[in-house]
Amino acid sequence: MKIALLGYGKMGKEIEQVALGRKHEIVLAIDVSNLNALTRENLRQADVAIDFSAPGSAFSNIVACFEAGIPVVCGTTGWLHRIDEVKTMCIQRNQTFFYASNFSLGVNVFFALNRYLAGIMDQLEDYDVWLKEIHHVHKLDAPSGTALSLAGDIIAALGRKNSWELNKASESTSLKISAVREGEVPGTHIITYDSPVDVIEISHSAKSRKGLALGAILAAEFIRERKGVFEMKDMIKLRF
Q1: Pairing relationship of beta strands 128-135 and 188-194 according to DSSP bridges
Q2: What pTM, to 2 d.p., does this model score?
Q3: Does the pLDDT of residue 181 top 90, yes or no?
Q4: Which of 2, 10, 13, 139 is catalytic?
Q5: What integer pLDDT is reported at residue 237 of this predicted model?
Q6: Among 24, 132, 135, 176, the one annotated catalytic
Q7: What percent of the chain has pLDDT over 90?
Q8: Which of 39, 87, 217, 222 counts the highest number of beta carbons within 10 A?
């Protein structure tokens, strides 16, 4: 499979190594030094594009892929106010789009655990809940896309929470998300349920970016011959 990498920073280079290890070929790698190479003709050299760029670039990169008729996998966060527009465009143009806030297979198992636990905790009103995420100092958006996915699932299941706030919870109905940026931490997410008598906590900690890179490549392999809008749940069949 021939791959175009849109975003060639640390994550893009990790994806490259995993792709080469799975016998794929990188035919285009775009970063800030060669943005003029992001043309329809160059994109058409690829079977699929993988976008791990910057929040300000993701939307235009995806549109460029649609215009070139190239399936696109996107893991960039911080631009999701336009994702419904992208999904509509994808369907209207009969293109292919795969988005995940986190491509790690382990994180997607963690998503399922979070949904299941939140469903149980909806019955136990003595427990308050909050969420903490820790990432490297280079991460531009906060909260992380993964944290927002976790928070959305908690709010959907837990009747006593209807919104989230960053680094505070001004109302009892608000879910606090703490965002910490330190060192080179690949990504840690912790969900805590606290009551007067005990604490229940689940967490996921990435050891490196390799798990994200592998998931992105698996997604690219998954959508190569498909049309439509896809998520990790379409690729990984989880019960919850």
Answers
A1: antiparallel
A2: 0.81
A3: yes
A4: 139
A5: 78
A6: 135
A7: 92
A8: 217
Angstrom distance (rounded) from CA 72 to CA 106: 22
* Residue 129, strand partner residues: 193
Question: If we measure between CA atoms, which residue out of 79, 82, 99 comes closest to residue 223?
Answer: 99
**Among residues 46, 15, 53, which one has the least CA distance to residue 215?**
15
Tell whether domain 2-103+210-235 is in CATH 3.30.365.10. Answer: no
Q: What is the pLDDT of residue 101?
A: 87
Q: Which tokens sit at 68?
A: 């070139």
- Determine the Cα–Cα distance for residues 36 and 34; give it in Å rounded to an integer: 5
Distance CA 204, CA 191 (A): 9
The confidence score (pLDDT) of residue 174 equals 97
Q: Is residue 135 annotated as part of the catalytic site, yes or no?
A: yes
| Cα distance between residue 78 and residue 87, in whole Å | 16
* Active-site residue flag, 189: no
The CATH code of the domain at 105-205 is 3.30.360.10
CB-based contacts of 81: which residues, under 8 Å, 6+ apart? none
* Residue 239 pLDDT grade (very low, low, confident, very high; cuts 50, 70, 90): low
Amino acid sitting at position 143: P
Give yes or no for residue 138 having a pLDDT over 80.
yes
Nearest CA to 103 out of 240, 231, 237 is that of 231
Q: Where are the domains of the chain?
A: 2-103+210-235, 105-205
Which residues make Cβ contacts (< 8 Å) with residue 13, sequence separation at least 6?
none
Residue 240: is its pLDDT beyond 70?
no
Gap between the Cα atoms of 219 and 75, Å rounded: 10
